[in-house]
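## retry 2 of 3
previous attempt timed out at serialization; input unchanged, resubmitting
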Amino acid sequence: MIHKWQNTGSSNKSDPKMNRLVHDVLPHPKFHLEDLAKFNAQCENWHADDADKKSPHLNMFAEVSIGIDLPSGDKDVPSHIFDVPGLLYRRLTSVVITAINDSLATKFQLSPYKLFHESPITGEQEHVFCKIYDSDAFNKEHDKVQRSTKLPPDDLGCKCEKVIAALMFCVDCMGLVYDIQRHITQARKYVAIWVAVAHDSIYKQGLRIGSAAVEHLLKPTSSVPTVNAFIDRLGSNFPLSDMLVVDLMHEFELGIWQALFIHLIQVLSVVAPDGSLVNELDHRYRQIPTFGLSTIRQFANNTSEMKTLAVHNFEDILQCSIPPFKGLLEEPHNTCLMKLLYQTAEWHGYAKLHMHTDSALTHMEALTKEFGQLMHEFHDITCNEFQTFELPEEANA
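## retry succeeded, writing output
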């Protein structure tokens, strides 16, 4: 019965979660089946929210009001500030102090090291990258701190060990990541000047965002008239993209690959307006057998509709994409697509490695260039051949 429940409804009930339910929750002495007689998940969530509001952890946060500058769109009417109260934030120093004072702090890896692998065939050694504390950046900053003669101003006789508190910043928003990378990778000063001019044109001169003057400033570099808070506080030369953890889920699996998959469905819909090619694609995905206990699960009957899919589902769709798509398009589009799908899956596989070596990173750099070239080739050969339209699911969203 439990196994049947796992394979119905949501696909988020993974094997580890099921094992925890069976081995940790149900046999627990505090678990009583009769307690679930009047159980309601929504009510329990409300109770949990009320408990969170009373949590002592909120004492670590400060509450502020932020002002958002709203343009008027009229040169004779100045912009005005819209206040948003109740923003909770926590200082980074508070996070570090709490972590160091935690009972688990003795388990932290505060001393860096370098990891090497010796090939049993060639005998050559190469650097292995696995954790933040075996990275070149961590080692470099650690050495810099050890050579520093600075002491705490309130304890000039301090002889405590000097260590690095490594913070990994994750941004759960693809748009912000791309916005930051655009600021960093383009000619910073040139772009920043034009963005600042466009920003003043909108907020001080009252020009509309879509006006010809603003478009003339922003369109050549695909910029937006938004001042990035990090850049504003830390300076345009701060290596912001190096600070952020790579977000493969949003940037690639739910970003590049999902967009490519949707476009391929659009192409198939144009080639066969009766839906026969899309139906054949769904049929082929459905015929793919499972692999392992939960590595590749059985695909739905309507994979092309992408209903209720989690990230791992898009990952599975990519890993198994070549057989379903093979031969659906005529040449030269089929060959071009097969190369692109193979390269997409290979790049994704290398990017998801938990451990990298010098040679693996060198190969991935070359792979990234080749992947980009294949994307351009696919655009020039296939995308320009078909005039695609939004899928019904997109239009109704």
